[in-house]
Amino acid sequence: MADFGLYSYQEEVVERALNGENIIIWLPTGGGKTRAAVYVAKRHLETKANAKVVVLVNKVHLVDQHYSKEFEPHLGGSYDIGKVSGECEEKDFFGRVVQSKDLIICTAQILYNALINKEETKHVELSDITLLIIDECHHTHKEGVYNKIMRCYVEKKLKRERPLPQILGLTASPGTGGAKILDFAVDHVLEICANLDSAIVSTKNYVPELKKKIPKPIKTFDIVQKRPADPFGDHLKWMMQLIHEYMDLPNDVRLRECGTQEYEADVVLLEQRGVRENNRLLAQCALHLKEYSDALLINDTLRMMDAYRSLEDFYNIKFTTAIDGTDFFLVGLFQENQVELRRLATDPNFENPKMAMLESILLKQFGSGLQSKGILFCKTRKSTHCLNDWVLKNRALQTAGINAAILTGAGNGITHMTQHAQADTIRNFRQGTLNLLISTSVAEEGLDIPECNLVVRYGLLTNEIAQQQASGRARAKDSQYSVVAQAGGREVRRELINEYLEELTGKAVARVQNMSHQEFCRKINEIQTKTILANKLLENHKTEKKSRYAASDIQLLCRNCFKPVASGSDIKLLDNMHYVNISPDFKQHYKVGGQVVLPRSFEDWEPGQTISCNNGNCNKDWGFEMKYKKVVILPNLAIKNFALQVAPNERTTVKKWKDVPFAVEDFSFTEYCQEYYPDILD
Hints:
6-stranded parallel β-sheet, 22 helices, globular
């Protein structure tokens, strides 16, 4: 192993895997888990007849990162290595790729799709794989795609179906699953082990070497006092109170404190209730209150002008027109107070003290003349853009030589970064063109980011796993890990709880590791049996829920104006992903807007224009048109923008299509053409 460059602690944690056991390697961020996995894969390929290794990752960018940084450099000269993600054509014949390669790195969703797809070119059996490596394996729980794959494995194991692949999991922390008591934390670790059918291993004999390899950063709580007065926030709360009075809240409704996440949860439920009860006044007021609540939360973390612009954008984009008196009141209230809100938001006497503290931390690190690199973690994409704008406009930060860029998650959505843009940003950061990343949680986990002198967590409430991974990014010598928070605020409490949970995780893992082999196996089998039975019951429940209503009995209503616009039977599922309305009559209910631009292209379809309700002045966003097979225009709908009329006096709302209470049939291009374009087939 020495010629491979492994540390002694890495040699220790791979030992059982080299003997063919299923294990989870638990090493902190920066401890070289992936390098250890490469070595296990190398030995497996050398010694196992007809070896086939599949490496699973949970984020698209990690496919290329693991390929180019680890597996290809070390194994590419001797073995045929492939990489497959949703952005490449190989996913459409994944079964053949698995047959032709020695080692494949792919997103977990691609393997799961292949396991359930029966087409020969796409299908894969678990028995085709001899070693399955699962990166960030603490995500193997609940309804995550890792767990769906491992349920297939566990079912086969319990039925004594063989062969099955050897499992190698990698994690910086299995976490406690929210448990704050040791016994429950042990239960959580056992559950992760059961889901992965693996024991968990960590270094016992080389802890000093590991600590030397990964020094802990100097942690500081940078506390600010509450601003003495907040006239901008107070004015928002006064406006919210006027909305409360106008909407005549039902007697059984109690809204919690304005400007908290609890209040936001309350008004989300209130909007849903308004839709269900055909009470547009209640629904619309709740919708607007959520925007005011968002503005208060932004005001608490960022600049007052960021909060003001958030509200201004909402009213400029969404509500240029009104449907009824409710809209006139709500839009009028904002317009009447707009000048005053803007005046208050630009008063420097009441600016957020957290921003001044953040400026001080950055100047201390970057203004010292040393070459520094930092990551500023914040909660939302909107926050990253606001903070980046602040850095660009802050003369002191610019003078200190800070070159910042945003780093957020990759995906197909309009607000996502492309995988290419992500890679460019990280490359520029590595090369020193950029020295500050302003990032959402995407940079906490897995990304190959160079050692940083400074990590700042700003306005974040996360679990112990995210906290450990963020802290693990500060790996340069004498690096600083800063938590910016208000005195007595929830961020400090959460950070201290997470420190306790980190210790609790270690104790829980040690307890599991100290179990006898017989006791561990008994508990794992017990958990697996219960989990499979519970899953079957859950699947039956979902099937019953799906068949509760016939699709033809369901009406889709615009979520804003409540006008019926489609039947459930008009909706079809295209390519197991897109829910489209195939009825030509649907076109009369919407109008088209701007062209949708997505960060990647697709094989069978391309995006068209946005669509919105054309009922009077409604203008509610519904989704966008897609051009399928270059000839057919199909409206692709987001169910969150609609209400479902399931009975004459009964409505419901769902966030995702998978939760609708009726079965959606698969789209057939041939049947569609036969029904609506019979002349083409003559």
